[in-house]
Every structure is written in C-alpha cells, then in structure tokens.
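PROTEIN DATA CARD
Card holder: Accessory Sec system protein Asp3
Chain length: 155
Origin: Macrococcoides canis
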Amino acid sequence: MNSQNFIVKWKSLNHAFMYGSVIKKGSVVQFTNHQTPAGIVLNEWRMTADYYSEKTAPDLPFLKRNKRYTFYFNYEAVPKQSVYFKISFYRRNETLIETKVVQEREIQVEVPDDYYSYTIHMMSAAVQHMNFESIVITGAQISVYSDEIDIQSYL
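Structure generated from the sequence above:
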C-alpha cells in the first residue's frame, strides 16, 4: 500500500485568535500571547470553504471513508502541553459525528462512514508562546481537489 502525505500550514489569519496576540509568519508561525485563556480556538482548518465569502480555498484534503489516517502535529509550545487539537467530523447537514481530542504529537484516526467534512481546531490550554510548523496527514488515499476525485464516494 502506497502512503501519501498532505502538509497543512497556517496560511491564513481568518480563523486565528487575534485578541492581544502577536503572530509572525515565516517558515514557522510564531504565536505569542501571555494572556491566552484556556479553551480558546487558536486557529481552525477546514475541509470545505465558501470561496465567495471567505476568498480562500479549503485547508484540508479529502479523506476516504472508513480509511485510517495518521495526523502528525509539528509545533513547540511554552509552557509544554499548553496546546491541543480537536479533529471533528460532520455529516452533510453539518451535525457532529465525532470529535477526537489530541494531546499527543500524533494520532491515528479512522474516518467515519457517514462523514461529509471535517475540521481541525488548534486549542489553547493557557499557551503563552508557540512555534507552529505544520500538520502532516498521512494515509493511503488522500485527494486534493483534482480531476482524480471520485465524487460519488463523498455523497
């Protein structure tokens, strides 16, 4: 089985926590905010996007239903373990199927049979400073908005 990778970067500030934050973008994104409350969404990545209202493309690739993928989270935070991630899967009518809370550097996830889209939220557990590099999604079948997508498998 051939494995494919998709690298997710912090490209846009549209869904970032900006209140009192200093965010510097380069090869890594440096986030600093000494008063970030716990439970706040620091950034959000989406599989779907409304180009007309947001003027951005989707951040995340299509994943095949009932397949297993590994998510690697590449970042350094101060204090340690002050950042965690939530991977949420939704049905077509936008109701939540399940959420995986990730406090480790990697997790294997099996995509639900009835999923239509998913999001990844980077959450604060009272983080003060963070260097974020990427999220790497590894799996056997990753599709990135091209002609080779089998649309019927997502309907």
